[in-house]
Design goal:
Elements (H helix, E strand, L loop, with lengths): L7 E4 L7 E4 L1 H4 L2 H16 L5 E5 L3 H12 L2 E5 L9 E7 L4 E7 L8 E9 L3 H12 L3 E10 L5 H4 L5 E6 L1
Parallel strand pairs: 3-4, 3-7, 7-8, 8-9
Antiparallel strand pairs: 1-2, 5-6
Helix pairs in contact: 2-3
This protein binds adenosine monophosphate.
Adenosine monophosphate binds next to strand 2, strand 7 and helix 4.
Length: about 170
């Protein structure tokens, strides 16, 4: 199945010059959703992992479904101020300014194997911060999965040394 055909390009969103990759057009088609989910599940199953950690908010859509299918725990990595219990944070730079993501301290136990998941790899800054969170808790990042990778932004170079699965490339 060609997943490229079910992603919608939205020019100048959220700001001028950005072509936003809208995945809602894929999500509303069950055959496309299930095709993508099965690809993620096959990859994760082969890794023998304990946890899927996904990044708010679009990462949660497939992240939760993958965890359920493979019988792994689901761990949300969230924007600041959303997680209620004790947590750790990582900040990373954006084009203008910085952003922060957080994880509960007790979400990963030392030595647990983890797959990180998000909808899209652009510059890689968000995923690099997520890797730091998992590793600070003693987790082992065994793989990283994305629905979409924007190859021309070379985010992969920032994630060197980690195995990456991307279903759609631009
Ligand atoms: P980055 O940290 O640059 O790799 O950005 C990745 C995060 O930003 C992901 O959580 C994406 O959801 C979001 N993102 C960045 N660029 C786009 C884009 N062109 N279309 C949709 N989402 C994007």
């Amino acid at each position: 199945m060609d997943l490229l055909t079910v992603i919608r390009d939205v020019p100048d969103f959220p700001k001028k010059g950005i072509v936003f990759k809208d995945i809602t057009t894929l999500l509303q088609k069950p055959e496309a959703f299930n095709f993508a989910l099965n690809e993620f599940v096959q990859y994760a199953n082969a890794k023998g992992i304990e946890k899927i950690a996904a990044i708010e908010s679009r990462g949660f859509i497939f992240g939760g479904a993958i965890a359920s299918k493979i019988g792994a725990g689901f761990v949300p990595i969230r924007k600041p101020g959303k997680l209620p219990s004790k947590k750790i944070s990582e900040s990373y730079s954006l084009e203008y300014g910085t952003d922060t993501i957080e994880i509960h301290e007790d979400a990963i136990r030392s030595g647990e194997k983890v797959i990180l998941h998000d909808d899209l790899l652009a510059t890689g800054g968000t995923m690099q911060a997520a890797i730091k969170l998992i590793e600070r808790l003693g987790g082992i990042v065994t793989g990283i999965s994305f629905l979409i990778e924007l190859d021309f932004l070379k985010g992969r170079e920032l994630l060197k040394g980690y195995e990456i699965q991307s279903l759609i490339h631009y």
